Amino acid sequence: MRKITYREALREALREEMRRDPSVFLLGEDIGRYWGGAFKVTDGLAEEFGDERVRDTPISESAIIGTAVGAAITGMRPVAEIMFGDLTALAMDQIANQAAKICYMFGGQAKCPLVIRTPFGAGVNIASHHSQSLEAWFMHVPGINVAVPSTPNDAKGLLKTAIRGENPVFFCEHKLLYPIEGEVPEEEYTIPFGVADVKREGADVTIVATLFMVHKALNAAAHLEKEDISVEVVDPRTLTPLDKQAMMKSVKKTGRIVVVSEDCKTAGVSAEIAAIIAEEAIDYLDAPIKRVAEPDTPIPFSPPLERYVIPDEKAIIKAVKEIA
Amino acid sequence: MAQNLEREKLIGMYRKMLEIRLFEEKVFELYGQNLVPGTIHLYAGQEAIAVGVCSNLGKDDYITSTHRGHGHCIAKGADLKRTMAEILGKETGYCKGKGGSMHIADFNIGMLGATAVVGAGLPIAVGAGLSIKLRKTDQIVACFFGEGASNQGTFHESINLASTWKLPVIFVCENNLYAMGTRQSIAMNVENIADRAVAYGIPGVVVDGNDVLAVYEAVQKGVERAKKGEGPTLIECKTYRQKGHSRVDPAKYRPKGEVEEWLARDPIKRLKEKLLQTNTLTKTEIQRIEKEVVTKIEEAVKFAIESPYPSSEEALEDVYA
Ligand SMILES: Cc1ncc(C[n+]2csc(CCOP(=O)(O)OP(=O)(O)O)c2C)c(N)n1
């Protein structure tokens, strides 16, 4: 199968959906013909679809999302880009109080089919305002779906589903994933929300990981195999809805689980998943649940400091060995 | 004009502007040598603004700064060594390497920190202004931001508040025509950011941001007004960033000839010519200053390079006071 990057896969999804449905349009800062998106995801799309459908906006995150909400409830399908995940904080009211609640609060009269794409993640030394992983904020808000693709294939299939769906989707990307290559079919496909993917099969320990951590988990698993520890890596692919069954199924088999997430440990993605396992699968566990996550600090700038707080293969291997 | 200002002050301005320029050139060079982690947003071309503003301020006065903040720090009197060390991520940097290029702060000189969230500094400056009023001191706050930031709600909310409460804040908009690749006209329907002051009932002034004396005088008036308790002023400084937005930006979105046009209006070159024309300084004196500045920057680079990185456990410190 052909290989393309995560960035290209996202761009293909946008291009195909824009060709298919004239109500799909993009808006965001520097996404148009002069820059093509800070991470170049939308590069070339303004040239194909014009400035009306690939709209460069002022630096106004709250208005970007609010505008997308207004367009979505009146028949359009906006895909908004927020340049860095950290900056979604500026649009939190429009995301959490408006977009997420419109369907419910108005008694099901309205739907709000909008997608918010944004990159999270550390690893390039751009410090506390450009490196966070805040997926859990959005998991905490009912009414919004949260996608966390880790491969080009998942990125494309999930983005297409997000654009075609009837609900607001918070679509998390990761800075370090953009250049990663992977197999992506040429033919049309979509990936449903709420269906996890087993990225590697194994028998001894389950690792649940998302986004860039999936790749670190796979590296760790490859290493552990040499020490005769067989690791299964489960990638939920969407956090809302969350495929509990897939995690449960894996834990039934292995009896051991390590949850790996780049976000802060407290009240984070790993906390929620660990709680679900503790609540619903405790009878299958042969060892305590382990979590590998950011140790509740802002992301520091200096390389040795940043490396220290971001979970790496070593930390994952250590956690696995503690319960294997 | 030049004649009315003390000679020492003029020379000080020239020296600071040159310090900023050569400092930025060094940062650029070190970046090329992989010594600067992350990204950089250089201040080259905008020196007259930071220096024109800060020459009106004392050590106790405050500034807030942005992702393009090296110049603001240096103009406010930050130590070049600790500034450079922070940019290189070293333990001896102002923030122990936790902040980096986009987040330098020196609370000892009223530099309240650089935020990389565009527009986030404005309400913080207003809060510092309110604190001055409540503490009944004679301080002032200068708040730096770009024209791109003036499209954030925080710009409008902050100026409204500062005006209503008559706070001692100078809002300094550095209009360098572009917010990343977005030319001003793509993102707003007004030519002058200063015109927006009307909506909040305060003076809005447009100045040539590449003329340090024009900036100095406009800010001086704003400071006088603020100290009389009459409230804030919005000063828009028209300028140009001579380099791309950040390290990766080839800045191809600029029309042909634009860069050259603005380089001809280089603020440092202009001040130098003025100083020579008015016989404030001789060529030899200028050369001496240049040499001194070069040495100072070399010392800063040496200090920064020789400083150690912080130990990894330092990452866990300072989360709470
Ligand atoms: C709230 C927010 N939105 C977007 C960005 C990404 N970004 C960083 S600098 C910049 C342009 C800022 O333009 P301007 O305020 O004019 O300042 P300049 O860079 O020209 O100095 C953008 C969009 C950010 N850091 N913060």
What does this structure look like?
- The complex is a heterodimer of chains A (about 325) and B (about 325).
- Chain A has about 325 residues and is α/β, with parallel strands linked by helices.
- Chain A folds into 2 domains: about 5-185, 3-Layer(aba) Sandwich (Rossmann fold), CATH 3.40.50; about 195-324, 3-Layer(aba) Sandwich (Rossmann fold).
- Helices cover about 35% and strands about 20% of the residues of chain A.
- Chain A has 12 helices and 14 strands.
- In chain A, strand 6 (about 145), helix 7 and strand 7 (about 170-175) form a beta-alpha-beta unit.
- Chain A is globular.
- Chain B is α/β, with parallel strands linked by helices and about 325 residues long.
- Chain B is built from 11 helices and 8 strands.
- A 6-stranded parallel β-sheet of chain B has the order 2-1-3-4-8-7, with helices on both faces. Chain B has a two-stranded antiparallel sheet with strand order 5-6.
- Chain B has helices at about 5-30, 45-55, 70-75, 80-85, 120-135, 155-165, 185, 210-225, 260-265, 265-275, 285-305, and strands at about 60-65, 110-115, 140-145, 170-175, 180, 180-185, 205-210, 235-240.
- In chain B, a hairpin with a 2-residue loop joins strand 5 and strand 6.
- The longest helix of chain B has 26 residues, at about 5-30.
- Chain B has one domain: 3-Layer(aba) Sandwich (Rossmann fold).
- The interface of A and B includes residues 30, 60, 297 and 302 of A.
- Bound molecules: thiamine diphosphate (TPP).
- Thiamine diphosphate (TPP) sits at the interface of chains B and A.
- Thiamine diphosphate sits at the interface of chains B and A.
